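Q&A log
Question type: sequence-to-structure
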Amino acid sequence: MQKGPVTPKGFGDIMPGEAKARRSMFNAIIPVLEEYGFEPLETPTMEFAETLLGKYGEEEKLVYQLEDKGGRKLALRYDLTVPLARFVANNLGLLNPTFSRYQIGQVFRGENPQRGRKREFTQFDLDTVGSNDTSEDVRVISAAIKGARAIGLNNAILQINDREIFDKLGLTKDQIMVVDKIDKIGRTEVEKQIGSLENLENPERAIA
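Response status: OK
Response body:
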C-alpha cells in the first residue's frame, strides 16, 4: 500500500531489478563503443531555454521550461543531441577534428504518458562530428549493431534513414517529419496527418 508522497505523472522510480538490468546493459555496450573510438561525455540536465528552443519544430511544445530566481529562462534537455552541438561549438579548439562521443542521460518530454513511454527516460546516444567521410557512418552503424549483439539482441536490425532522400519527392520538412514517425504512430495516422498538410496531392506516395 502506498503511504508516501506520489511522483508526478510520467515520472517514477526504477526498481532494483530493472536498475541492475539497465546497468548490465550499459556495462556490455560501453566497451564496444570505446573499442570503436567513442569517448564518454556528460552534459547538464538543464540548459538555457534559448539553447534548446527552435530546434524541434512542432514538438518544441514538449520541452519543459522554467525560470530561476534571477529571471533566467531555463529548460530541461529534450534529447542529448542539441547539448552535444552546444558542447562542440564551445570546444572547437580543444577537440580532435573528428570527435566521437557516447552519452547516457535522462531526458524530459512533456507528452502524454502511455505504456512504455514516460516523461522522463534514459537515452543512450552515440555520434561522430567533424567529418564527411562515409567511413564515419559505417563506424557508427557497426558500433550500434555490435552493441545490440552485446546485450543479446542477435536478431535486431538497424533501420537507416536520410531525410534528404525525400527531396526528390517534393515533400516539405513537416511532411517528412510525419513520414518519419510511421513506426511510432502507424500508417493510418501518418496518412491522416499528411492528408491534413498543405500542398500534398497524393499522401500515398510518401509511405509506399
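Response note: Residues 96 and 130 are 9 Å apart (CA to CA).
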